[in-house]
Design a protein that fits this description.
The chain is of the alpha+beta class. Among the domains are: 79-108; 110-263, Roll (Nuclear Transport Factor 2, Chain: A), CATH 3.10.450. Helix content is 52%, strand content 14%. The chain has a 4-stranded antiparallel β-sheet.
Length: 267
C-alpha cells in the first residue's frame, strides 16, 4: 500500500514539472470590408499625346500579295479580251465593206459606165475607154489624132464630172451629167487667130501644134455644162452613145466654134 502511495506522489510531481501543452490558438482572419478596399490605380505616365493617339490607331492589314497579283492578271486579261473583240469587229466591218464594194463593181450600171469612161479619159488609159465608148468617134471632130494618147490627155486634164440623175428603161438609160472643163470656144478662137497670123507672115504652121499650145495655157477659163447622156446595153455591157450632147459635155464650146470657123463666122 505504501508503495502505491509513493508512486502516486511521484506521478503528481512529474505532472507538476511538465507543463501541459496548450493547443495552438486559431487566429481569426478578418475579411476586408468592401468600403475599406482600395484598388490601386495604374500610374499614368505623362506621355506624348501624339503617341497616345498612335496607340489607338487601327492597324491596317497589308493586302495579300497573291490576291493583288491575281486581280492584276484578271484586269490585264479583261483588257486584252476587249481589244481582241474590238479588233475582230473592225476586221469584220472592213471585210463587209470590201464585199459590198466588189458587188457594186461587179454589177453593170449605166451610171458606173459613164463614170469609168471619164476616169479612163483623164488617166489616158484609152484601151479601157474602148470598153465604154467608141473613142475614135469621140475624138473625130477634135482636130487631134485619136492615136496620140499623150497629146490627147490635154483635153481631159481639167475635166471634172458629177452624175446628177439616172433614168433607166430596159436596156437604155439617160444620165444627167454635169461637167466642168476648159472653154474650147476660147481655145479654138485663139488657135484660129494665131494660124491666120502665121499664114499672112508666110510662116509654116499646123493647126494641131497651135491647138496644143493653147491647151497647155493655165489662164483658159472653164465652163460648167449639164447634158443628158445616153447609155445603152450592148452584148450585156453598158456603152455610152457618142452624140452632140456627149461631145458638148466633154469639150464645151468646141463644136460651135468649129462650125463657126467652117462657115466663116469666126471673124
Amino acid at each position: 500500500m505504501a508503495e502505491n502511495e509513493e508512486e502516486k506522489k511521484q506521478v503528481k510531481e512529474n505532472n507538476k514539472e511538465a507543463p501541459k501543452k496548450e493547443a495552438p490558438k486559431k487566429e481569426k482572419v478578418e475579411e476586408p470590408k468592401e468600403k475599406d478596399v482600395k484598388i490601386a490605380e495604374p500610374k499614368k505616365d505623362k506621355a506624348d499625346p501624339v503617341k497616345e493617339e498612335k496607340k489607338f490607331e487601327t492597324v491596317k492589314a497589308k493586302p495579300d500579295a497573291k490576291k493583288t497579283t491575281t486581280s492584276t492578271v484578271n484586269s490585264k486579261a479583261g483588257k486584252e479580251k476587249k481589244k481582241s473583240i474590238a479588233f475582230r469587229t473592225i476586221v469584220i466591218v472592213i471585210v463587209l465593206l470590201a464585199i459590198i464594194g466588189l458587188i457594186y463593181i461587179a454589177l453593170p450600171s449605166p451610171a458606173r459606165a459613164v463614170q469609168q469612161m471619164l476616169r479612163d479619159l483623164k488617166s489616158g488609159d484609152y484601151e479601157k475607154v474602148e470598153e465604154y465608148v467608141d473613142y475614135e468617134e469621140l475624138m473625130n471632130d477634135s482636130l487631134m489624132s485619136s492615136e496620140d494618147a499623150e497629146k490627147n490627155k490635154l483635153f481631159f486634164k481639167d475635166l471634172q464630172f458629177t452624175v446628177k440623175n439616172v433614168t433607166q428603161k430596159d436596156d437604155t438609160a439617160t444620165i444627167e451629167l454635169q461637167t466642168v472643163n476648159k472653154d474650147f470656144k476660147v481655145i479654138v478662137e485663139n488657135s484660129a487667130k494665131k494660124l491666120l497670123q502665121k499664114y499672112f507672115s508666110s510662116e509654116d504652121a499646123e493647126i494641131e501644134e497651135i491647138l496644143l499650145e493653147e491647151l497647155q495655157k493655165e489662164d483658159i477659163p472653164t465652163v460648167t455644162t449639164t447634158k443628158e447622156i445616153t447609155v445603152q446595153k450592148q452584148d450585156g455591157k453598158w456603152k455610152v452613145v457618142v452624140d452632140d450632147n456627149l461631145k458638148e459635155a466633154i469639150f464645151p464650146g468646141l463644136q460651135d466654134s468649129l462650125n463657126a470657123v467652117t462657115n466663116g463666122d469666126m471673124f
